[in-house]
Amino acid sequence: MGAETEQLIEVDGVEKVFSVRRKVGRLRRVREEVRAVDGISFRVPRGEMVGYIGPNGAGKSTTIKMLTGILVPSGGRLRVAGLDPARERTRLARRIGVVFGQRTTLWWDLPLKDSYELVRRMYRVPDAVYRTNLERCVELLDLAPLLAVPVRQLSLGQRMRGDIAAALLPDPEVLYLDEPTIGLDVISKAKVRGFLHEVNAERGTTVLLTTHDLTDIEQLCRRVMVIDHGRLVYDGGLDGLRTAGGGERTLVVELERELPPIEGVPGARTVKVAGPRQWLAFPASQSAAPLVAAVAARYPLVDLSVREPDIESLIAELYAGGGKRVDAAVDGGNIGRAL
Question: What's the fold here for domain 3-243+314-329?
Answer without folding.
Answer: Rossmann fold (3.40.50)
